[in-house]
Amino acid sequence: MLAYLVMMAPRLMELRRTLKSTGSIYLHCDPAASHYLKMLMDAIFGPENFTNELIWKRSLPHGNQSKKFGASHDTILFYKKGEVATWNGSFLPHREEYLEQFYKFKEPDGRVYRLISCINPNPNRPNLTYEWNGVTKVWKYTKERMQSMHDSGLLVYSKHGTPSYKGYLDSMMGTPMQDIWDDIFPLMGSSSERLGYPTQKPQALLERIISASSNPGDVVLDPFCGCGTAIAAAQALGRPWIGIDITHLAITLIKQRLKDSFGIEQAVRTTPSGKGETAKVGEAAAEYGSATKQPFHVVGEPTSEPDAAALAASDPYQFQWWALGLVGARPVEQKKGADKGIDGRIVFQGDKPGTFENVILSVKAGKTSAPHIRDLKGVLDREKAAIGVLISMQEATAPMKMEAVTAGFYESSLWGKKYPRVQLFTVAELLAGKTIEMPPIRQVGATFKKAPKATEKQSGQSELPM
């Protein structure tokens, strides 16, 4: 816990510096850490800028319930940077039992309404004390306002002459949002929104937060963006965004998610040599994520062979995830440990309907030789996979190429083509645009679970179906 707090402190200080004077920060945390983080947030943002402790009921109770109450919530700490912060109040639809109890009246045209008392609960208001319809009371409204409502047919009088105001349901904003949120359900395994990322949050949760504390056109920053739910929510709500994550696995997932949901892709620009390269550091922050279908920029990814070599030397696991992202493969092992010779997979549809085949991938950051190809062939046989791919930094040697050739071909009767059963690629070749020879991937057997396609709101902004 202490190490975590030491890690968070300078980052929270930077986030406070980065926020506009009207900005807000929401820190989503486990209940085991929330009280420590609140003390840290008080120290950095000031206790006077603490706004809410939000409780999100994220799941059914779990844990050892024979010894304690079940755990079912996360805490979200909400702070503003200064005295005045952007705020758009949120409302929930009225509950059915509330509607049945209070909205009992209906106009001939079908409009439903309730009667709201015109009597002021504050008895000490001399300026609002007067006689109306033979009744002297302290009223909620001025005499002129009462007259206007009477003339508009909005007042209903009791047998004693006391007026009530018609409150139409279609003009009411709903119930103001409180600090306990139990109406946004967690992502279950069958949810169309679920992408398989372990800490993924519902997009509705992030949309509520972003809508409350920003306006269209305001920049949203998520410095621990994971699989990009905050980014997708900002895109859907018309906010430019910046997302940051330390893992290349997360960045690959986000790029695929933006393509699937919004039809936008990473920006590529042409260099003087005529080759495309991804945008590098130096672009304006607002250009990274747009509220339109403009391409987004990725900063910090390797864009050249020396960049990839530097990543491979500094962190072989991040290099592995990045390299798999170049070919759209899903990592098999997200934790450091034995991978049984498989670093990633790509799934494509087999010759028969409802059957699927695998492409097995192995990524090597160091030196490679013919035994690596023999090992890959052994994994192909063990897994009964269709195609094996080796991605490396170094050019394949002649013995490696010979081993690959002896593996033969995978033949697809569906597509009427043969594909080399073992294929060798260097990172330089993949960066130059070379691709794996394999049957097309169809959506039903996609390697990554496909994010739902965004639909248009009436306002022209996008939203994901719930």
Produce the secondary structure layout.
Elements lengths: L1 H17 L5 E6 L1 H15 L4 E13 L8 E10 L10 E2 L3 H7 L2 E2 L5 E6 L11 E4 L2 E4 L4 H9 L3 E3 L5 E6 L6 E2 L3 E2 L21 H11 L6 E3 L6 H8 L4 E3 L4 H15 L5 E3 L5 E3 L26 H10 L1 H11 L3 E2 L12 E6 L6 E9 L5 H14 L3 E6 L5 H8 L3 E4 L4 E4 L1 E5 H5 L23 E2 L5 E2 L3
Parallel strand pairs: 2-12, 13-14, 19-20, 20-23
Antiparallel strand pairs: 1-3, 2-3, 4-11, 5-6, 6-10, 7-8, 9-10, 15-16, 17-18, 18-19, 21-22, 24-25
Quick summary of this structure?
The chain has about 475 residues and is α+β, with helices and mostly antiparallel strands.
Describe the structure.
With 466 residues, the protein is α+β, with helices and mostly antiparallel strands. Helix content is 28%, strand content 24%. The chain has twelve helices and 25 strands. The model is unreliable at 269-288 and 456-466 (pLDDT under 50).
